[in-house]
């Protein structure tokens, strides 16, 4: 029987990527908003475990065995026992847009009590331009009821293509372990009704919990690094991607937005476990962030891939001194691009991947 | 009879500067919030006209004759028939903080219907640090219920001293004449519950309608330029100040915040009159903004005055080509600093000015 529901925007141009280790009951709450989209589920941990997906969703699911089979030796660039594995989903998608969400994120309500269609807001953000070159004090000038304020240069009012839409979280804020430990009871209750462009030249802490991006514009830079099993660091996967993505967006003239939409983040992760994962990152970011703040990509870097390979060289050269981990990471960045290009041959974006996954 | 009202914060350390051409009836609405502060009223236009100030306010008032008497030949740097004259008030103040507000701005209400004490929010903004070196996705990390998010470098969590607090406007947005003409009915109804730091290296359109700053940190850069009578430009006074202030704050390591508080902007100015004032600015800003985006101040510029004099040289050198107006403006910038230093001799900040104004 044909569905009589209205077709949602970008239905056939967007994949929802979900990394998980458990049954996806959380999707029940998202049913009205996600049901007509295609899901890519990246199963982390034990591949013999069966992940239950609620009835009626259209999905493909990859476990570690699938990743190893599809990527072969290059599967070494995909993290294991860490939600960083989600970036495999970005790689196998053939769509123009990606939305990724954690399985402990639920539908939030706006101050009027209305349930927020997070995906729809992300799509709005991605389909309208960004303003990275000058700050607009009334925030997103492309939204209804707003515009550029007096003194905003007219030559910049066309904006820049939007590559990333970074959404926020009500309830449990995305704090690091030390802050979690110090403020165990803090909840985010402040609904800030704004979307804004992070200015060119400014880095930000990109959280992977509620994130959308234009895969065609920036996909190959959305690598979530080497985290988790066998690595000296965790919980920096999205941060790493954010630093790389922002530097490359700045270089290529793309915009990165943050703000709306909110999701409801249900449960704080264990701060003691988090501290163990994070402590190297807390230390290393003091070197990594100044590095990314001063990175210069040469003019010849005209594609995301070229930018990313150049960045991998500079990472090894400049951060290799901080810890040998960064040499390994620099190599993995190259492997990631090779794997990306294998699965996404130029000019045939719709080509099927060599070894198909379990598809429902 | 002694007042039994509680003493408001910074009562003796802040002046409220109001430029006006009319009776200040608008103060009635602000009485609960302003009554205990000292006002500096800068009367624009015909000095023979008497400006009525509601009973009970503590104020000093300067008209053009006062400005001419106090500054002598240096009064040429203070604009006439333009609200840019307000910067004279910054110069004669002896306080650490300034709040300036237009006389068509009323008390706004927050979404719960509560009247917003704009001055109190500005003071909060000025007394807490800024975060110009890295973006915090949950906005002001120093506000109640918020903090730095995961991935924010710990070395940057002390922040930077806040020099400027730029407040916003509900109802009539601060649009340029072309936007006013195109969208005559647009009203700003979006209450964005956030204060954020404008990142280092990013310029913004600073509006003088609802603005507070730390005079000790940045006062000498708050020059509102040559506008109005006898000048080829108007409505760029605050923009000019904003560009200069931001570049100098970035150089000296100070922060600039924007967002809360809102005021209620009651009446749109005439877009046809505005267009006449603005058209040169609309044209010139396309050159001026790239100039300010690329300005480099040498290390030797360790005070606001030194920065400002250096900036005046670069303005003449780089923007003088755009229009001879910028040579005149560059000279006026120097005169402004000379006048500032005359009235604010180093080490005697509390010294009385030579020729007193009309004081109530």
UniProtKB/TrEMBL annotation, chains A, B:
The record marks 150, 157 as: Required for activity. The keyword Manganese does not apply. It is found in: Golgi apparatus. Keywords: Cell wall biogenesis/degradation, Glycoprotein, Golgi apparatus, Isomerase. Signal peptide: none annotated. One of its GO terms (cellular component) is Golgi apparatus. One of its GO terms (molecular function) is UDP-arabinopyranose mutase activity. Its main location: Golgi. It is an enzyme of class 5 (isomerase). InterPro entries: Nucleotide-diphossugar_trans (IPR029044), RGP (IPR004901), RGP_fam (IPR037595). Glycans are attached at residue 150. GO terms for biological process: cell wall organization; plant-type cell wall organization or biogenesis; UDP-L-arabinose metabolic process. Its EC number is 5.4.99.30. Belongs to the RGP family. Probable UDP-L-arabinose mutase involved in the biosynthesis of cell wall non-cellulosic polysaccharides. This is UDP-arabinopyranose mutase. It comes from Ziziphus jujuba var. spinosa.
